[in-house]
Amino acid sequence: MTDETGPWLVVGLGNPGREYAGNRHNVGFMVAELLAVRLGGRFGRYKRVVADVAEGRIGFGGPKLVLLKPQTYMNLSGGPVAALAQFHKIPAERVIAVHDELDIPYGQVRVKLGGGEGGHNGLRSMSKSLGTKDYVRVRFGIGRPPGRQDPADFVLSDFGTAERKELEFLVDRAADVVESVVTKGVEPTQNAYHGV
């Protein structure tokens, strides 16, 4: 079991603005929003950082989560993350980034601690601002773009019709994965979810 005394910072990565809301790149926001509902929290603009923040606990008296949706654009996500982690005295190993992942097939959710950023600008910004890559990533597979579509255009396009039929269920599972990391740890979560 993980230490339950300190809070966890869960970062949903995405871009602010209605025009980006349904983008593949914004799936981190979708998962953070569902977690807020589960915890009975509500996102509000945070005075100290350019971000929307919600707080709550998993279950009655369980671990506290600070949920963060940076309201900078993706490539500047790290500033709000580092500022909030510092304010709440949350070490990097208790920071969880939820993000889209091109190198994983659509619908699969994978967890890892540390590693590279795989060209993801939100992760690159977080690593730079936190001064480490040793934070947890919950990677939501969106698959590779079809044909010769530019990956940058693909991530900034909305989920397709067929994908949207499963999206609610998959976002729900990704939220389960985040809660599992917090309550059980990275390795037990990998064992439980990586075969799914």
Automatic annotation (TrEMBL):
Keywords: Cytoplasm, Hydrolase, RNA-binding, tRNA-binding. It is found in: Cytoplasm. It holds the Pfam family Pept_tRNA_hydro. Its EC number is 3.1.1.29. One of its GO terms (cellular component) is cytoplasm. The record marks 15 as: Discriminates between blocked and unblocked aminoacyl-tRNA. Its main location: cytoplasm. Transmembrane segments: none annotated. The keyword Metal-binding does not apply. It catalyses: an N-acyl-L-alpha-aminoacyl-tRNA + H2O = an N-acyl-L-amino acid + a tRNA + H(+). The record marks 100 as: Stabilizes the basic form of H active site to accept a proton. One of its GO terms (biological process) is protein quality control for misfolded or incompletely synthesized proteins. Coiled coil: none annotated. GO terms for molecular function: peptidyl-tRNA hydrolase activity; tRNA binding. TRNA binds at residues 20, 73, 75, 121. It comes from the Bacteria. The active site is at 25 (proton acceptor). The keyword Protein transport does not apply. Hydrolyzes ribosome-free peptidyl-tRNAs (with 1 or more amino acids incorporated), which drop off the ribosome during protein synthesis, or as a result of ribosome stalling. Monomer. HAMAP family: Pept_tRNA_hydro_bact. Belongs to the PTH family. This is Peptidyl-tRNA hydrolase. It comes from Micromonospora wenchangensis. The gene is pth.
